[in-house]
What does this fold into?
Amino acid sequence: MADAPMPRTRAGLSAWWWRHQRALTPLILLAPGVLLFALFVLYPIAESIRLSLYDWDGVAPKVWVGLANFTELFGDPVFYTALANNLCWLAIFLLAPVFGLGLALFLNQNVRGIRAIRALFLMPFVISQVVIGLIFAWFLNADFGLLNDLLPRLGLSPVAPLDSGRWAIFAVILAGLWPQTAYCMVLYLTGLTGLRPELIDSARMDGAKGMNLLWHVVLPHLRPVTFIVAMVCVVSALRSFDLVMIMTAGGPYNSTMVLGYYMYEQTFLSLRYGYGAAIATVLFALMGTCVGFFLWQLLRREQA
Amino acid sequence: MRGVGGLAALGLALALLGPASARTLVINANTSDPAPRAAWTAAVAGFQRENPDIEVKFNVYDHESYKRSIRNWLTGGSPDVVFWFAGNRMRGFVERGLLADISPLFTPEVRAALHRPAIDLVTVAGRQYGAPYSYYQIGFYFRRDLLDRAGVAAFPRDWVELLEACRKLKIASIDAFAIGSKDLWPTAAWFDYLNLRINGHAFHMDLMRGAIRYTDERVRAVFARWRELLDAGCFTRNHASVSWQESQALLYQDRAAMMLIGNYIVANFPADIREKMDFAPFPVVKPGVGRYEDAPMNSLHIPAGARNKDDARRFLAYVLRADTQEAINRALLLLPVNLKAATADDRFLKKGQALLTQADALAQFFDRDTSEDLATIAMKGFQEFMIDPQRLDTVLATIERARRRVYKH
It folds into this structure.
């Protein structure tokens, strides 16, 4: 450890730092985030896409099969059931913003105790999906459920929605729509509080009221919120898993299968890691397309 | 400074590696439920008392995640002892060279004490790879009082009597069989027993290892019998949305009389119902076919890559002993595999013991006997068939397609 060269090095270093500080600081600040993102998001994505090209049961050596998993997937009737159910889920989930907006408008008033009422409407969003799934499954249960206890009293015949290959998926989506509506409501409520009262007043002055006011003044102001709400609904429709797992486990005989659950089932119950990864890859592409579309819209709007 | 840091790092590395080198025995178990956990903690403590020089590390994992983790342990860093299942599940690992040969533990004395089928279930190509410790019976758990009420004097012993009992119960507004098929596997108990009773054990095992087509006439014969029960309305309706746990309620609420299930149901009997419950084996379907039973068996194994195989073998020998098996199974309420061990004083276990020791051969249950992949698809097919028997051809075609893919025939 000689003393002489040290100051020069230090001076050199600091001069170098001085020169490149502007360029380096963002990189240094970004590094931890980028590193973690690469390690925990990008790497797993790449790894699961790679795995989708193999046949693997978790123990035997991986066997390269090229696109065979995908060829099988695209000829697999269960895959199409799952895809159709995801799309059906998506279509029905687009009702959530409508209901959510309705509730938000209704709750956006200054009445005594409105906070408590808002909190009540928010409840389903706060409850875990697993609990919601259980509540709905019990409610709809054909033998022990509350629904079939009520229906005969109203003079109607009992039903068994979760046992029907045709209706079970709607029962599951309905359970999902409940918390989703609450979530949309919260987002719209926040949007509505951002709405300036003067704007409404001046619109009223100009003679706008009722639907007119909503359509031409309130809604355009809520556009950014609507955008987020729609994106959230699309994403949660595509990644639906927990309700299916709790309420039906994909049954009866695959009729309530969704891509997320099929991926789980093939990977962890059937121990077909490659096939599960292929489903994951398709789901990723689907979700990527949707999110990409939204981001593109967002960018376009910001630039405008 | 650098030197000191390096030493410290080396010291830390040694400290981490250190204890594993000498006489540490690492046991990974899937006994996460309260009763099994207590039973095995006690067994491990007993072993520790006998071998104070061995430091036992007993790691308990959740049952479901264990199934996935064991694959990593066997291929990567190994514990010394793992809990697993005898029969086909074990065979899959043995064929890939992942489990150690423990044949020397099966001395003539040990062989003489163990239930013969149990030895077969841990044997591959004449060598033993596991220490079986408990098993249990699967059969009809039924409400004696409800059968009486419907005028069924004795539990059905053959197919005609079973259909007759179902008919009588129906008249008394009681469903014959409670079932919940949400988790799929309860349907497989029906397939297993019908196939074992109609086509016998050898055929069943051939089918399980993918050597026979699901579209075979003999397999169709199984579904034809099954369909007789479905057409007569013997099963509880709306079974697709209930788990087996939920379906028990039908039995306890006087709404169904029988359930084809494993002995673990006994622990769930409500106090007032327990006395009314009884056990009977699955009736004869085709005369002349041997007595074959489903009896899932659990066992311990040593991974091929285990560090401390000597002490692992010592532990397995301890588990094979009559006194150990007696204590464990008394706590688990299961049957010991060592016939010198006394069975817990429980009438359901006594009946199961009698049934299984007289059985000509044992199967392990559908989802243990065939590949996980095929099992999932087939059991969904069974559920579909039970809901709509008209779809049998589609169902069998789907299962057959999966069999070809899985077993590459």
Remarks:
- The first strand of chain B starts at residue 24 and ends at 29.
- Residues 68 and 124 of chain B are 23 Å apart (CA to CA).
- Residues 185-208 of chain B form the longest helix (24 residues).
- Chain B has 18 helices and 14 strands.
